[in-house]
Amino acid sequence: MGFLHKVAWLGVMLFVGAGQVNAAATQKDDSKAAIALLEKALAYYHDNGDKAFAAFSRQGEFVDKDRYVFVVDTKGVMLASGGPSSALIGRDVSEVLAPDLQKAFKDALLVPEGNGIQQAEYRWQNWADGKVERKHVYYQRIGQRILAVGYYLPRASAEQAKALLDKAATDLGKNEKGTLTAINSLKGGYLQDDLYVFVVDLDTQRYVAHGTNLRLINTDFSKIKDPEGKPVGEPMLALIAKQDDGEYEYRWKNPVTGKVEDKHAYLKKVGHFLVAVGYYSP
């Protein structure tokens, strides 16, 4: 396996910091735990300097469940890690990042010392499950070192759901065939964490695109029900028949957690299509 391939699967970059997050944990809890672990590492580094790297790079007090401390220098070299990126200690990881992530990496390296704990968010492959998910990282520069702790964010927000719906609706209006093909092939950014797009032809009332379940294509949307047997498709169609957009709440399986959860869907009419994106409530 080549170096770049290893990096892709290990999820190694400046902001690598967590394994697969427990879906039951809230973002608030993860945030507090990540900051606490980082502050603990910063205090330890203050007392021990670079000798702290040994403690950071082993399983122990600087590994908290899915979260762990990692350190890079301002040239992009991995110096310490309590997670899978420990395999790259001593290597420059700055040049192996995707183009859209290189700027975030370089910006973080330029943060002046004394600015306190910083944070950033991005999308990256989770080494534990192979899925591209959102991550959040807290980091602080101490001299030529940057200490960091991060965690995955498995739940998308209402704002992200609206943004994805707007993107899908706009793209569908510009390129109907290409957009439907992209949604069904899981490309074009229409599948984000636990967010996905589905499209129904209002003339036939059948699915023409679905971001996670291609078996639904060509099935009758009006007959779709939730796991408890409550109608889902029929009330959505009735709603969008009266207005060009709307919202609907129901129960549905979360593709990330694999559990049936409460879902809030945003609906929009685009020509003869119903386009929808929903987010899951914790």
TrEMBL record:
Domain Single Cache residues, every copy: 20-106, 155-234
Topological relation to the membrane, as annotated: Multi-pass membrane protein
Signal peptide (UniProt feature, chain positions): 1-23
Subcellular location as annotated: Cell membrane
Keywords carried by this UniProt record: Cell membrane, Membrane, Signal, Transmembrane, Transmembrane helix
GO cellular component labels: plasma membrane
Record InterPro entries: sCache_2
Highest rank taxon of the organism: Bacteria
UniProt cross-references to SMART domains, sorted A to Z: Cache_2
Broad class of where this protein is predominantly found: membrane
Name used for this protein in its record: Calcium channel protein
Phylogenetic placement of the source organism: Bacteria, Pseudomonadati, Pseudomonadota, Gammaproteobacteria, Pseudomonadales
